[in-house]
Write a structure and sequence with these properties.
5-stranded parallel sheet, 3 domains, about 375 residues, Elongation Factor Tu (Ef-tu), domain 3, globular, about 25% helix, Rossmann fold
Length: about 375
């Protein structure tokens, strides 16, 4: 495996400028805009590519698409938009709603990466636009180690987005460029200023792109799933503590929104969608030592004939922790943590790195 010492000697992967035409997936944000600027400055033949995913003012679409087109014009490159609204609704939005309806908590950005960026947009770029690669504004580093493409930690550990990339394959990585892998966020903004990019100071979007700030996730889900009153039950005793308007308003580990007076803070411990029950308890009751993950993807091949030692994390903002992977079948694994983890949540991702915590091995969906 690629050790941390070795990874520091390998440069971020760049294809040749002579034979490469690169489509930059542009959202209208500073990161993807700087990615396009870097590629143009390096002499690549580049084209801006934006997926039209839904109609939503000032989100990735509409306002963002206009900004992407303007940046492309300023850089002297063509900009193309691709209508993916039907696909996005069916594969991302509808899946988001049905997942919450069944008691799991999805990460739509990961699904979007696999289905949209490295799915339809890549197919369109390579097939219709004649591109050899796509580029994105993710903070991740891609290195080539022999015949293998490996995703490693970026320079900016605070912006590390490797967690979101566990669904990628060797085939798509061979046609991918991450221009921001060797830059910090502050350096990206400085590059934007140096390039006179008008959105150098544009704020980042932190929320789910298709959920409005005014409505919020709870309101969005209620619009599709409605309200269904049920009981909130104390996990240890079985006592009824109160009522709720629908299990889809809750996720494992949630503290806010329970609205029950208790001697200590209460957290959501479990959900029974069929019986419409939310189980709550103390923080200690959230701890668990293992999980099962499905739909597992290995970014790089690993030996599956014996348990695999890894560093693992179960949410984007958490720290990695040491664990052992046991292989159940080609697409399902059991992950056993050396120390208990809190709030292991169905629908979320478990993401696996090598023991040096540098190379992304892969991941799966917690079930």
């Amino acid at each position: 495996m690629l050790t941390q010492e070795k990874s520091q000697t390998l440069e971020n992967y760049w294809p040749s400028t002579e034979s490469s035409k690169i489509a930059v997936c542009m959202s209208g944000g500073v990161d993807s805009s700087v990615s396009a600027y870097i590629l143009a400055k390096k002499g690549y033949k580049a084209v801006g590519l934006t997926g039209w995913l839904f109609k939503g003012s000032n989100k990735c679409c509409d306002g963002g698409m206009i900004d992407a087109a303007k940046i492309s014009e300023d850089l002297g490159i063509n900009h193309v938009s691709k209508d993916l609204r039907e696909l996005f609704k069916g594969q991302i939005v509808d899946h988001f709603i049905s997942s919450y309806g069944s008691g799991s908590t999805p990460i739509p950005c990961i699904t979007c990466n696999n289905v949209i960026k490295w799915g339809s947009l890549m197919d369109y770029a390579l097939g219709e636009l004649g591109c050899s690669h796509i580029a994105t504004g993710h903070y991740a580093k891609l290195v080539k180690d022999g015949d293998l493409y490996k995703i490693t930690r970026p320079k900016d550990s605070n912006k590390d987005q490797t967690f979101m990339l566990w669904g990628l394959t060797q085939e798509v990585l061979s046609k991918t460029v991450f221009p921001l892998g060797d830059l910090t966020k502050d350096e990206v903004r400085e590059v934007a200023r140096e390039g006179n990019l008008f959105l150098a100071e544009k704020e980042e979007s932190q929320d789910i792109c298709f959920v409005s700030d005014k409505e919020g996730t709870k309101g969005f889900l209620e619009r599709y799933l409605g309200k269904k009153e049920g009981y909130i039950i104390e996990n240890k005793t079985g006592n009824v503590l109160g009522t709720h308007d629908g299990t889809h308003s809750f996720t494992i580990g949630q503290r806010k929104g329970i609205k029950i007076a208790y001697s200590e803070p209460l957290y959501v411990i479990d959900l029974d969608v069929e019986k419409n029950v939310v189980f709550v308890g103390t923080k200690e009751e959230l701890e668990g030592n293992e999980l099962i993950a499905k739909d597992v993807n290995w970014v790089i091949p690993v030996q599956q004939n014996e348990p695999l030692r890894v560093m693992a994390k179960i949410r984007y903002n958490s720290k990695t922790t040491s664990a052992t992977v046991f292989f159940l079948d080609d697409k399902k694994i059991k992950v056993v943590f050396d120390n208990p983890e809190s709030a292991i949540t169905p629908g979320q991702s478990v993401v696996l790195y090598d023991e040096a915590d540098e190379v992304l091995f892969g991941g799966g969906t917690i079930c």
